[in-house]
Fold Triosephosphate isomerase.
Amino acid sequence: MSTRQFFVGGNWKLNPTSVGKAKELVEVLNKAELDPNTEVVISPPSLYLIPVRDAVSNKQITISAQNAYYKENGAFTGEISSSQIKEAGIPYVILGHSERRTIFHETNEVVALKTRAALDAGLKVILCIGETLVQREGGETTKVCEGQLSAVVKQTKPEDWSNIVIAYEPVWAIGTGKVATTAQAQETHVDVRAYLSTAVSTTVASETRVIYGGSVNSGNAKDLAGQQDIDGFLVGGASLKPEFVDIINARK
Ligand SMILES: O=C[C@H](O)COP(=O)(O)O
C-alpha cells in the first residue's frame, strides 16, 4: 500500500434541510471512533459552513466548500470566493463536480480557473473528473478525464498538486446505485496517474491522492479501498447516513 493518506470526503450537496439536521450529522461523527489514519472532510452547503465548522469537535475532521468562483470580489451575484472561504477557516473546496459541470454548464476551462483561484487563496482543492455513460460506452473515458485534467495542468505548477486531491467520479455511478467495479475504478485511477506522470511529473503522479466517488456505501467501500490506486472516496448519499463512519473506517 502507498504512503498516500487515505481520504474520505462527505459531499452533502444541497442537504440536509436545516442547520439543526446538519449539526446532528456532525454529532454522529464527533461521537464515532474514526480510523486515525483517515483524513476526513465534510462538505455542507455554503450557508452551513460556519455552523458546521463550529459544531465539529473532532480535530480529525475538516470542512470543505462545494464550489467557489474564480474572481475574488465584484458584481457576481450569488457567488462566493475562495478568499472568503479561506477567511472563514474552511481549508478545502470541491471544484468541477459533475453536477456543476452538467447542470451549471461549467467548462474544463472554468473549473481550471476556479482551481487556480482556490490555490492562490490558500485552499486545498478536491478536483472532480469523470465521464458520462455515453462517453464510457464510446471508449472515451481516458480521453475525457485527460481533457478535464489538462485544463488544470495548464493553470498549475507541479508544486500545486500537493494541494489537490483528484476525485474520479464516473457520472453514471453518481446517485444511481451503480458503483464502478473495483477493476473499472482501479483502471481509471492508473490512467490518471499515467497522465499526470507524462503531463506533470512522476513524483506528482505517485504522490497525488486519487479518490473514487459514485454510489460508495458501507457494503462496497472495503473492496474499493483495497485497490492499490484508490486513495479514498468522495461520498454523496451515504455521507448523510450513519454508514459514513464505516466508509471512513474502510481500511481499519
Ligand atoms: O460527490 C459525490 C458524488 O457525487 C457521489 O454521490 P453518491 O455517493 O450519492 O453517488
Summary: Strands lie at 7-11, 39-43, 61-65, 92-95, 124-129, 164-168, 210-213, 232-235. Residues 11, 97, 169, 174-175, 213-216, 234-238 surround glyceraldehyde-3-phosphate (CB under 6 Å). The mean pLDDT is 97.
